């Protein structure tokens, strides 16, 4: 079965059944070994599940890369209060489309991951918050949850273990900021999706002000594989600090866009030129965003690095959620940065002044430059503005907006200056 | 640069050409022999019942649909049962607000002030609170939209591959302005932020359905398909 594109360098753990419609059904999932990990987890103590995931070195796949096992270990001892597991399926970082594929091809993998995660943190209820636009994946996941209930994998006395674990699917309504975990929790509670000031962290006061762990779709599915096969098995891939495999979503100017699962630490240059086939026309690459629109961009000369959290940080950017956006030499950098900044201005929740005002101002200045009316002083203003937008707000949306601005001005200053001398949008073509 | 580019952001000339029909991720032949139903999961999902079916998923029916009646009652019959199922899933009735707004949106096609007030009364929330929440989220239409709500992604990944041209093609083919509804009430065309289908550019959402790999020249056939 062929998922859009496959490559021999891939290690398919999570994506093995992409493009296989049989794997979607309960019967098909069970025939492929499904729910064996849940059976094993329910036979283990919650602490043992947490320790196994901790030992695997699995880091959260939502973007921040915080160790999943450690996040679970922050949950307080179980008292009278209910605990909640919340799965963040609000995938909305531009360039990211891995969770959508995981859900629409292997919905039961996520159901199983949520049940295991809930058992690990002793939660009786798992909420899956899926973004509103994902109607089709949500219907597929809803059917899988129904099947899981009917088969006794969810609900009362899961698989005869004596544990009760409910799952509720919750559909969002279109807001990027609800991908931020505390914004998501507010949205789940029926509020505006405005991020909360931390502390308190969700482990202490999360959903409904009760202890909560919020995990990304990919993290939970990876955790199920770790429980089934052991921490050492997972550590066979990746680097010392970035273990395992990860899905990378590739879009933009590449010959074979799509999701590829490779071990962390894979060479980025080889990934783009070999796995993804390079640019469609063989044109030179101008810039690559390695982890979604919120991370600093790299030039073509900076690609010979490992695809892991540490190597990306050393290169001045971030692995983020593994969303690789490739831009060839025909790309109008100013326009694309302006487009990204417009997005952040649209999605700013408006709580913090540096973000609410900064994203809008930056968009205006960039539009002025794009239209050929910019001056060199505008670049200085943008840099100062970006500085004021970084590290000064409740959440990191504002920092995310500043990343493409500052990195593009530092690395593609010539493009901005050329725009000032050549007001016509077709300046790149004439170059 | 080659003439075939035709602009800085149009799709490169070697973009996969083997297309079968406009519509779903994989229609450029990448999914080999899979049918549209298999890729979309239609046969697996089946028909979701109006009462929401299993309470675990009762609040998740698609709420941007072609058939809508702004005058229909909100909480009668199967819909009333669905609200109760939703309420039972959360420790706090306020958490049912989004799912219940979804349902009102599904029935009536948009959230009028009166609709929001009815939801407020049903959930015991203040009308001002409900409006504050409803206006935060971009997927709630606050006024009527066309039978087909066409949302074209123009964010970075689609933009690099020609999203702007696809938007323009929809505007031309329907005669609509951005954000406006055509006089016959059929189409509303909007620009939308990242739809999370970046590997299949350009991504277009029409009501509750994604159409992927859309190129400007596919637009007439796509509109024809909706009828």
In short:
The complex is a heterodimer of chains A (431) and B (227). Chain A has helices at residues 26-31, 36-42, 46-56, 68-73, 98-105, 107-120, 135-150, 181-188, 217-229, 231-235, 268-275, 309-314, 333-347, 353-370, 376-389, 397-411, 413-421, 427-430, and strands spanning 84-89, 125-130, 166-171, 212-216, 245-252, 258-263, 285-289, 298-299, 323-328.
Strand order of the largest sheet of chain B: 2-1-3-4
Percent helix among the residues of chain A? Answer: 40-55%
Strand order of the largest sheet of chain A: 6-5-9-7-8
Biggest interface: A-B, 91 and 72 residues
Helix-strand sequence of chain A: HHHHEHHEHEHEHHEEHEEHEHHHHHH
Oligomer: heterodimer
Q: For the CA atoms, what is the radius of gyration of chain B?
A: 20 Å
What is the mean predicted local confidence, pLDDT of chain B?
A: 89
Q: How would you classify the helix and strand content of chain A by structural class?
A: alpha/beta
Number of helices of chain A: 18
Radius of gyration of chain A: 22 Å
Give the overall silhouette of chain B: globular
H/E series of chain B, N to C? HHHHHHEHHEEEH
Distance between the termini of chain A: 45 Å
Q: What's the helix count of chain B? A: 9
Share of residues in strands of chain A: 5-15%
Query: Number of DSSP strands of chain B?
Result: 4
Average of per-residue pLDDT values of chain A: 95
CA distance, first residue to last residue of chain B? 40 Å
The number of strands of chain A is 9
């Amino acid at each position: 079965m062929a998922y859009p594109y496959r490559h021999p360098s891939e290690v398919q753990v999570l994506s093995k059944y992409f493009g296989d419609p049989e794997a979607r059904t309960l019967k098909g999932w069970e025939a492929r070994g499904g729910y064996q990990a849940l059976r094993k987890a329910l036979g283990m103590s919650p602490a043992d599940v947490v320790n196994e995931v901790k030992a695997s070195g699995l880091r959260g796949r939502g973007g921040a890369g915080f160790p999943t096992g450690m996040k679970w270990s922050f949950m307080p001892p179980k008292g009278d209060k209910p605990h909640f597991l919340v799965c963040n399926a609000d995938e909305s970082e531009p360039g990211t489309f891995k969770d959508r594929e995981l859900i629409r091809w292997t919905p039961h993998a996520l159901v199983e991951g949520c049940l295991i995660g809930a058992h690990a943190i002793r939660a009786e209820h798992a909420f899956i918050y899926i973004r509103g636009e994902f109607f089709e994946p949500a219907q597929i996941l809803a059917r899988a949850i129904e099947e899981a209930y009917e088969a006794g994998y969810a609900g009362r006395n899961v698989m005869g273990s004596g544990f009760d674990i409910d799952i509720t699917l919750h559909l969002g309504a279109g807001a990027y900021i609800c991908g931020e975990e505390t914004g998501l929790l507010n949205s789940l509670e029926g509020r505006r999706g405005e991020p909360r000031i931390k502390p308190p962290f969700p482990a202490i006061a999360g959903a409904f002000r009760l202890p909560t762990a919020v995990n990304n779709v990919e993290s939970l599915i990876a955790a199920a594989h770790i429980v089934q096969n052991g921490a050492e098995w997972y550590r066979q891939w990746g680097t010392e600090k970035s273990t395992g495999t990860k899905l990378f979503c590739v879009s933009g100017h590449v010959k074979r866009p799509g999701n590829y699962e490779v071990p962390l630490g894979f060479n980025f240059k080889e990934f783009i030129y070999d796995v993804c086939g390079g640019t469609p026309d063989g044109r030179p690459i101008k810039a690559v965003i390695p982890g979604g629109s919120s991370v600093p961009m790299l030039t073509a000369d900076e690609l010979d690095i490992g695809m892991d959290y540490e190597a990306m940080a050393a290169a001045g950017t971030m692995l983020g959620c593994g969303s690789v956006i490739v831009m060839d030499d025909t790309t109008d950098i100013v326009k694309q940065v302006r487009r990204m900044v417009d997005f952040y201005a649209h999605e700013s929740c408006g709580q913090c002044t540096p973000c609410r005002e900064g994203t809008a101002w930056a968009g205006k200045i960039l539009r002025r430059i794009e239209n050929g009316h910019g001056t060199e002083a505008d670049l200085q203003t943008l840099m100062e503005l970006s500085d004021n937008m970084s590290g000064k707000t409740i959440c990191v949306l504002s920092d995310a907006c500043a990343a493409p601005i500052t990195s593009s001005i530092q690395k593609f200053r010539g493009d901005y200056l050329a725009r000032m001398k050549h007001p016509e949008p077709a300046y790149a073509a004439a170059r | 640069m080659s003439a075939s580019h035709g602009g800085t952001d149009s799709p490169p000339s070697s973009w996969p050409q083997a297309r079968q029909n406009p519509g779903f991720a994989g229609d450029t032949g990448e999914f080999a022999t899979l049918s549209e139903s298999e890729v979309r999961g239609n046969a697996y999902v089946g028909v979701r019942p109006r009462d929401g079916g299993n309470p675990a998923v009762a609040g998740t029916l698609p709420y941007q649909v072609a058939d809508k009646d702004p005058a229909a009652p909100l909480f009668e019959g199967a819909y009333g049962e669905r609200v109760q199922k939703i309420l039972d899933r959360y420790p706090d009735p306020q958490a049912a607000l989004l799912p219940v707004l979804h349902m009102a949106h599904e029935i009536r096609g948009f959230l009028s002030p009166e609709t929001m007030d009815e939801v407020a009364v049903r959930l015991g929330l203040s009308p001002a609170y409900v409006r504050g929440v409803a206006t935060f989220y971009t997927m709630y239409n606050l006024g009527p939209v066309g039978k087909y709500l066409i949302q074209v992604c123009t964010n970075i990944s689609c933009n690099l591959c020609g999203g702007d041209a696809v938007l323009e093609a929809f505007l031309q083919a329907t005669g609509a302005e951005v954000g406006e509804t055509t006089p016959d009430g059929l189409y509303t065309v909007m620009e939308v932020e990242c739809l999370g289908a970046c590997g299949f550019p350009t991504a277009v959402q029409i009501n509750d359905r994604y159409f992927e790999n859309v190129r400007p020249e596919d637009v007439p056939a796509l509109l024809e398909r909706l009828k």
